[in-house]
Amino acid sequence: MSSELLAPLDLAFWHLESAGHPMHLGALAFFAPAAVATAAAGPGARGGDRLLDLLAGRAAAIPRLRMRVRDVLLPVGGAAWAMATDFDVRRHVHHVRLPDGDFAAEATAIAAELMERPLERGLPPWEMYLLTGADDGDEGPFAVLVKLHHALADGMRAVAIGAGIFDQIADARTVGVRRTRTVPPRPWTAGPWQVAGFARARIEELGRAVGVGASVVRASRLDPRGVPALSAGSSGTRRLGTAVLDLEDVQQVRRAVGGTANDVLLATVAGALRRWMGDRDERLPAADPRALVPVSRRRPGSPSGSGNKFSAYLLPLPVSDPDPRSRLDAVRTAMDRNKAAGPSRGAGALAVVADQLPPLAHRFGAPLAGGAARMLFDVLVTNVPLPRSALSLGGCPLREVYPMAPLARGQSLAIAMSTYGGQVHVGLVADGKAVPDLDRLAESLSEELAELLSVTVAG
């Protein structure tokens, strides 16, 4: 992999970034100490040094993490991924020792501060932070914060890249490298019928983009203020909240009423927002807030590839409805309607439009498009799939992992979820000044799921 052009959607994310709105994804992973320490940095190495060396070595072995963005002459306004010839993994992997106290709380607070900082654009756009206790020994828990620029990958691809630090994936990759044989690509040739087929597909793609664009215009609100609790001027600060939901509780609700586990989680978010708004003494909005719900456009079994391949659905979150069962029914109905239309149609499929725009349009139009996001939706709610198998780093088992999504301009909250070890881990990213009570929203998620369970299963 020497050089490749950024896909249109990758380019859009690259140019959407500003100092107050960094466009990187994140994940905060918590590990328990290993029962038996593994020797990764030589005899006598302390816990933090050993883990830092291991983390750096694993990251350096991931080819995608050696790539940086550079401008190109053609296409005009475009950019390309190129191998960083001066790559030094130690410029990307850092060690932070936390003060004594509640380790999880301290790690979450420092992770929020680190998420505020944009990635250095002249380097490969990623960072990892090893967070340990003040004693830096082998007997305490530790955490790893991973930051990947959204131009580098969407959620699924980010998981595939970030998972390379784990023992299980790193070991499998080492074995795979020995057995892999590079097959040179065959020269592309096409007859007239194939050319006609490609042209027809291109016309259909443009037609879908025009349709999505019209849907976006129809769905956009003339009043861009949105929901007061979810919209605010950017302070450039970040606050991180976390919640843990029992996956079996989610599945029990799903089995009782039908639909999907994601429907249950989206209804839980809607109910939690209602509780939170009530605690803030805010009047419920006249129109329900809209969630942008990303959906992958990667086909099962297809190569993971690089860059972003996703679309999204727009979903009204029924916070005005006081009945939790009715809220769940409303979410199911809306999501069924979205799925029937498909991920390449409707106002949420903004990525379809972005894929059809020339590079120059992204370079100059991204800031304008970013500022208009709140005219279309109020909060991002995404579900990031993780490997189902148990994972570890240096023999230390992974216990919890909280995904984090970037904030759009004019919005103060983004919600990301992932499932691991029989639990749903929810990462809440908020503007630090606009949402000082983020912990209360995190608590509301658990309360809402408990109520959903009681009215659908126990009831």
Care to describe what's here?
A six-stranded mixed β-sheet has the order 5-6-7-2-13-12, sandwiched between helices. Residues 37-45, 176-191 and 193-220 have low confidence and may be disordered. It is 38% helix and 21% strand. It has twelve helices and 15 strands. The chain is globular, with a radius of gyration of 22 Å. Strand 5, helix 3 (103-116) and strand 6 (126-132) form a beta-alpha-beta unit. With 459 residues, the protein is α+β, with helices and mostly antiparallel strands. The protein folds into two domains: 3-179, Chloramphenicol Acetyltransferase; 215-388 and 404-458, Nonribosomal peptide synthetase, condensation domain (Chloramphenicol Acetyltransferase, 2-Layer Sandwich), CATH 3.30.559.30. The longest helix is centred in the middle third of the chain and has 28 residues, at 192-219.
Annotate the secondary structure layout:
Blueprint: E1 3-5, H1 8-16, E2 24-31, H2 47-60, E3 67-71, E4 79-83, E5 93-97, H3 103-116, E6 126-132, E7 142-149, H4 155-162, H5 167-179, H6 192-219, E8 238-246, H7 247-257, H8 261-279, E9 290-296, E10 310-316, H9 324-341, H10 350-354, H11 359-371, E11 379-384, E12 392-393, E13 396-404, E14 413-420, E15 423-431, H12 438-458
Parallel strand pairs: 5-6, 9-11, 11-14
Antiparallel strand pairs: 1-4, 2-7, 2-13, 3-4, 6-7, 8-15, 9-10, 12-13, 14-15
Helix pairs in contact: 1-11, 7-8, 7-12, 8-9, 8-12
